[in-house]
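Below is a filled-in request sheet from our internal design queue. Each sheet records the structural input a requester submitted and the sequence that came back. We keep these sheets so that new team members can see what a complete request looks like end to end.

REQUESTER: design group, bay 2
PRIORITY: normal
MODE: inverse folding
CHAIN LENGTH: 145
BACKBONE (tokenized):
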């Protein structure tokens, strides 16, 4: 049914569980996967504590390293399951737009993601990225709870 599944991840435990389920689904369906991690660009004024003390170059290097570490989880799991996999890092303040645009650009026919990632005040302030993807995507979305 589905041939190419986009797996957006923020590296959270719930996101990791969704990735595991989606990679197994891809294996069973003979599909391939693309892992996606969205990194916010550097801002001088920000609500993100990790940007306040960094220089732009330092932030770029550290966020790239973290993104690669998060995506390596998908790559390793896909390899173990024999599922073709590629990964992509996108810099954007609009996570849901980046997810939808990547799915469209990569010609994915399914987006599989966790129901929750960010928690606490950050989650309340930002709203649910999953909900935004569900609302705006023309591509089917599988939500893992």
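RETURNED SEQUENCE:
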């Amino acid at each position: 049914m589905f041939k190419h599944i986009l797996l957006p991840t923020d590296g959270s435990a719930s996101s990791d569980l969704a990735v595991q389920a989606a990679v197994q689904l891809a294996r069973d369906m003979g599909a391939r996967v693309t892992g996606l991690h969205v990194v916010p660009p550097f801002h001088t004024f920000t609500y993100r504590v990790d940007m306040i003390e960094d220089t732009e170059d330092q932030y770029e290097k550290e966020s790239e390293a973290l993104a690669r570490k998060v995506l390596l989880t998908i790559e390793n799991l896909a390899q173990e399951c024999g599922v073709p996999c590629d990964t992509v890092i996108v810099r954007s303040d609009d996570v849901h737009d980046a997810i939808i645009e990547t799915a469209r650009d990569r010609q994915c026919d399914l987006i599989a993601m966790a129901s929750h990632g960010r928690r606490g005040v950050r989650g309340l302030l930002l709203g649910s990225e999953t909900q935004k993807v569900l609302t705006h995507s023309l591509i089917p979305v599988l939500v893992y709870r």
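SHEET NOTES:
- The first strand starts at residue 4 and ends at 8.
- The chain has six helices and five strands.
FILED BY: M.R.
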